[in-house]
Design goal:
Helices cover 32% and strands 22% of the residues. The protein is α/β, with parallel strands linked by helices. The N and C termini lie close together (6 Å). The protein binds dicarbonimidic diamide.
């Protein structure tokens, strides 16, 4: 039985688990650990840790349910040819994208800081989408991948709520995918942006998507 109902705001939702994927946005060392991109921008990276435990629980349940799991990573080619100069040329030149840091070159593919944190490390058969932008659909093959698997619903986790999570949800919504954002599985360096980011998604009758939490997701996944 793959049909279930998940508690969410602004309304509960009937979903087909066989056509649902878990997408975990940018849980990378560069955003969560000292010395990476997030810290270079002056943020308190410890604020993002709160999402790790809840994501781990949902990831474990999704793996058990054989759900499609997708991890994304924000980052650029070593020659930065896919990084718009206006994105690179911000802040202190010593701390910009491509600059050397304690976890390798900041936000560059293949560097230790670009990789996903060990607690949520992808299994060999899980999809990894390397994205040059904030949204996971921009200049990636995420959309054809979802369409080929006939996915209609995305359970969305990751960081940061108002940047890459929100951008991805808006891109997905415009492409006809239904997003359910798991609030405690997302985090921001700014608690007020986290709250506002979630409020914007579910406002006006779910203008971009629905907001739920890890407990409701686990109940729904258990009903499979
Ligand atoms: C940011 C992201 N915040 N993954 N990236 O620059 O949200």
């Amino acid at each position: 039985m793959t049909q279930t109902t998940i508690e969410a705001e602004p309304t509960p939702l009937a979903i087909d688990l066989a056509r649902t994927a878990l997408i975990i946005i940018d849980m990378q060392r560069d955003f969560l650990e000292p010395g990476g991109f997030g810290a270079a921008l002056g943020n308190d990276v410890s604020r993002l840790k709160a999402a790790v435990g809840p994501i781990r629980s949902v990831l474990t349940a999704a793996r058990k349910a054989a759900m499609l799991v997708i991890h994304t990573r924000e980052g650029h080619r070593p020659d930065l040819s896919d990084a718009p100069p206006l994105k690179v040329e911000r802040g202190d030149p010593k701390l910009r994208i491509g600059a050397p840091g304690p976890m390798g070159r900041i936000l560059v593919r293949g560097e230790p800081g670009h990789d996903i944190i060990p607690e949520l490390y992808p299994l060999r058969d899980e999809v990894i989408i390397d994205k040059p932008g904030k949204g996971a659909f921009y200049n990636t093959d995420l959309e054809p991948l979802l369409r080929s698997r006939r996915i209609e619903t995305l359970l969305v986790c990751g960081v940061t709520t108002e940047v890459c999570v929100n951008t991805t949800v808006r891109e997905a919504n415009d492409r006809g995918f239904r997003c359910i954002v798991l609030a405690d599985c997302c985090a921001s360096y700014f608690p007020e942006f986290h709250a506002a980011g979630l409020a914007m998604i579910k406002a006006q009758g779910a203008i971009f998507g629905w907001v739920s939490g890890s407990a409701s997701a686990l109940t729904a996944l258990d009903s499979d």
